[in-house]
Specification:
heterotrimer; A mainly alpha (about 140); B alpha+beta (about 250); C mainly alpha (about 120); B: about 250 residues; alpha+beta; Fumarate Reductase Iron-sulfur Protein, Chain B, domain 2; five-stranded mixed beta sheet; 10 helices; C: about 120 residues; mainly alpha; 3 helical TM bundles of succinate and fumarate reductases; 4 helices; elongated
Amino acid sequence: MSTPVRYTLHHPRWYRRPVSVFWWLKKRAYIVFVLRELTSVFVALVSVLTLLQVRAILESPEAHAALMARLASPPVTGLLLVALAALVFHSVSWFNLAPRAMPVRLRGRRVPDVLVSGGNFAAWLFLSAAMAFLFLGTMTTR
Amino acid sequence: MADTIALEVTRYRPEEESEPTFQTYEVPLRQDWVVLDALNHVKDHVDGTLSYRWSCRMGVCGSCGMMVNGEPKLTCAEFLTDHAPGPIRVEPLRFFPVVRDLVVDIGDFMSKLKSVKPWLVRKQERAIADGEFRQTPQQLDTYKQFSMCINCMLCYSACPVFGLEPSFVGPAAIALARRYSQDSRDQGSRERLDVLSEKGGMWECTFVGECSEACPKNVDPAGAIQQYKLEGTVHWFKTLLPLGDR
Amino acid sequence: MTRSPTPPLWLLFSAGGTLAAFLFPIHLLLFGFVFPLGWAEPPSYEQLLALVRHPPIRLYLFGFISLPLFHWAHRFRYTLYDGLKLKHLNMLVAVLCYGTAVVLSVVAARTLLDVG
């Protein structure tokens, strides 16, 4: 070789396909991913809802009753139904991904992912049952 | 089943055109043929001007990665019959600059890979007299999965973040960084963590997870990246304490 | 090398996401459906008031409200970057997302301290 060839990183003749802003609509897996990420909006919604409930309770019995009544209206119930679906999707996807982010090792061997997820789901069930029992069992005026 | 199947192949001749086009070839639909066999048939008997990369034709070299019907695949592992009756669309690996036809530039990937130092880094070298490094099966187990990477870059074509953020070092590079940092013989995990904590590093990842889905060797780069995020976070908090643990 | 703020933000995202994953569905089921729609007898107002005033519960409620907000902030920020390709508005998006979480957390703190 008489003259060394210079390597050009941004060769003008290479074709670079632009990535559309609608890239996430092109593949089912990407759509599911974006929906998964958007569950965070409903998570924020429930946080705000809880805040409103606490404020209503601290304000007066009437304020709390008014909030409860608002929650019972059909459009709100509809929105909350969507929110519930989103929350469940969040929980399911979160627990399924957990073992890959934090592999559990026992005695030098890796615990199978399905067991780690299963453990998370079991804990979810237990905590949910505990909360339900607390509010439905012990706190009602029976 | 039909005798032939149509292959719609990307053609891009930079001296002649400014955008890629498609050319359709009818190839024999043989039970035992993969897409790579079909491409080789085209090159050998139909159109010798078609350019593409391949080598081992058995899924270990990582050369023949292309988009097959929109999904990143090793063409040596994609059977024609799985896509019958076709047509099968064969395109260059997505998110990489196209040099010609099905050939993409991999220089960017190569330099990103180098930046994570994919080799055993030693601060103190062992003398020959001390003997070889010994490793238990458990120690091997902590990194073995990540060592299966064949640098085929299918994961980069699956990763939307890589498509959107050109500085992202990418799934394979991070998985290989983890392979070495987890290796009991290595002493370079801090250096790699520093590189991956910068812009374009692990924090660009949003755990889409498609990289692991595309990986033909079950490396699970997505898992490697999330493990790195945890390690990076722990390290960040450790450096807040005056323990001299830099 | 400048210290990136991403690790503690990611920690908040993870903590909030985990909390929301375990506790939010049942909470919404109870307080969004079961009690407002009368599927079961709700706790009395006095019981709820006593519960909300209880100091350990107030701490729990602060975490319950605040951490998932930071989960949303971090996740939504990246969704805007990648989903709408808004990365060039980096600072604005970051301020809007984390700012909202901070403001609402402050409101929650003031509410639970019986001030606001």
